[in-house]
Amino acid sequence: MEENTTNEEDQQEAARLQARLRQQQVTNNDVSSQEYQRLPNVSIDKGKHKYVLISAKTPSGERQHFVVSKKGAAYHRDAAEPFVEALERCGYKSIDIQGGGRIHFDTQNKTINVYGYSYGFGLADHALSKSVIVQDPRFQDYDVTWSNEGY
């Protein structure tokens, strides 16, 4: 698998996405509970991919964290953007991409390794990402580890 790194255009797109999300936090309107649909906190594809840690608020003000990877994402933004759009459609507010890295999800060995960083979004809190993953019942029998090493 080719290990793409970011480029200037991707960094600009990541910055635009973050600026748009910050602006929405200022101009958010209330969302009725009828429009709200809860999304899973962990959405990761099998294999080794770029991942992002995202936080968002439900209409009731509850803060949720999401660990998201996407197979084939050349840049962290490619993993973040579709999930951010899903959060917006489902009624979440105050969406914030808190950083990124890499995730290796090995279903055969039942391991998940979180590591590295994102040029576009910065270093995610991998300990928090691990916590989000281990709280998901789908991954209760997985060995989940993290490290700030590597890219």
UniProtKB/TrEMBL annotation:
Annotated binding of substrate, by residue: 50
Domain of life: Eukaryota
GO cellular component: cytosol
Record InterPro entries: Janus
GO terms of molecular function: protein histidine phosphatase activity
Active site: 76 (proton acceptor)
Pfam families, per database record: Ocnus (PF05005)
Identification of the protein by name: Janus/Ocnus family protein
